[in-house]
From TrEMBL:
InterPro entries linked: DIOX_N, IPNS-like_FE2OG_OXY, IPNS-like_sf, Oxoglu/Fe-dep_dioxygenase_dom, Plant_2OG-oxidoreductases
Name the record gives this protein: Fe2OG dioxygenase domain-containing protein
Residue ranges annotated for the Fe2OG dioxygenase domain, each copy included: 215-315
Metal-binding keyword on record: yes
Length: 368
């Protein structure tokens, strides 16, 4: 019998107002009972299947940004950041100042959550009409291919957005680890946002002022079980993040994340204790396309499960997102995106399956 993640059943979009997703089985549970099976719903069409290669030596490296230089206002590092956002949309951040212990505690807390018995995890199951909680998102049809992962998504900042019914509070240390990690990510995000502001021709607090306060935050914890046929499945389908930007903490010893660069899939080789940062759709729009929110996906490992922790930084629901004035110049840089209320953008994203950047058309202006 399939271990289904139960749900609340109602069809209206729930409290967060962002969207809904059909309930799906837990792939971790399926693998627990039969680690050799590859159920049909997870087998992707030929064209979408990944090439699994052990040899990563020849693949290009994504840019590395030294956060300690950025925080000191080092001009060369700011320029490096600009090129990383423009040419790659992805970079790894080293020397971010977050204690290794905090990162390790967070990873351990997430590992402990996914190790809980299924009956226990189910207590935090997301409702069909919500996107928060344990389960999976972006499932809009019984016929679509499913991703080889389970997740738990929690809103973390502002603190009044925390829905503790989805938090595994009975798991010792989980709440403390997540809260501490969330605070540290917010600090890094503030500095990055200040740099993005300057690079978009605004004052350091420009983007923050535009949205009338600090960025919101939600943390998505992903668990990718092993699969006997990683060449047939995807851990997470190609997509771009609907965020301002995303900070990803991943296992040091399993490569899974791949990004689309010059039409090829490039693996992101983990640097221990670093964070992977990617530009989200909201920053692509605000920068009028100068910075790209890049398509990415995760592949599965045959021997080792993988955990990743994505911290999504995003604007307020009510903020109008559009290209900032300094990024528009009618002659050379005409406005490429319309202004759109952030909640409307997110609802569009959550109403579709993950399919590359298809959802970003919603904000694009027709160009000649
Ligand atoms: C995500 C994501 C990639 C990964 O959660 O949005 O892209 O490597 N995760 O887990
Ligand atoms: Ni993503």
């Amino acid at each position: 019998m399939e271990a289904r993640v139960e749900n609340g059943g109602s069809c209206e979009v729930g409290k967060s107002g962002w969207g809904k997703s059909l309930p799906v089985p837990s792939i971790q549970e399926i693998m627990r009972s039969d680690s050799q099976s590859v159920p049909q719903r997870y087998i992707h069409e030929n064209k979408d299947r990944p090439i699994i290669s052990e040899d990563l030596a020849d693949s290009p490296e994504i840019p590395v940004i030294d956060f300690s230089f950025l925080a000191k206002g080092n001009e060369d590092e700011v320029q490096k950041l600009h090129l990383a956002c423009k040419d790659w949309g992805f970079f790894q951040v080293i020397n971010h100042g977050v204690k290794e212990e905090i990162l390790e505690k967070m990873k351990a807390a997430v590992a402990a959550f996914f190790e809980l018995p299924f009956q226990e995890k189910k207590k935090y199951a997301k409702a069909e009409n919500e996107i928060e909680g344990y389960g999976q998102n972006f499932v809009v049809s019984e016929h679509q291919k499913l991703d080889w992962s389970d997740m738990i998504y929690l809103f973390t900042i502002p603190s009044q957005n925390r829905n503790f019914k989805f938090w595994p509070l009975s798991l010792p240390g989980f709440k403390e680890a997540l809260e501490e990690y969330s605070r540290e990510m917010q600090k890094i995000a503030e500095e990055l946002q200040a740099n993005f502001s300057v690079l978009m021709g605004l004052k350091r607090d420009g983007l923050k002022r535009l949205q009338g306060g600090e960025l919101k935050q939600g943390i998505r914890m992903n668990y990718y079980p092993i699969c006997s046929r990683p060449d047939l499945v995807l851990g997470i389908s190609p997509h771009s993040d609907g965020t301002s930007f995303t900070l990803l903490l991943q296992d040091d010893d399993v490569t899974g994340l791949q990004i689309k660069h010059n039409e090829a899939w490039v693996p992101v080789k983990p640097i221990p204790n670093s964070l992977v940062v990617n530009i989200g759709d909201a920053t692509e729009i605000q920068s009028n396309g100068m910075y790209k929110s890049i398509e990415h996906r995760a592949i599965i490992n045959e021997k080792k499960p993988r955990i990743s922790i994505a911290t999504f930084m995003f604007p307020d629901d009510e903020q109008e997102i559009g290209p900032v004035e300094a990024m528009i110049d009618d002659q050379n840089h005409p406005k490429l995106y319309r202004n759109i209320k952030y909640v409307d953008y997110v609802r569009e994203k959550f109403s579709r399956k993950m399919e590359g950047k298809a959802h970003t058309q919603f904000a694009k202006l027709r160009t000649r």
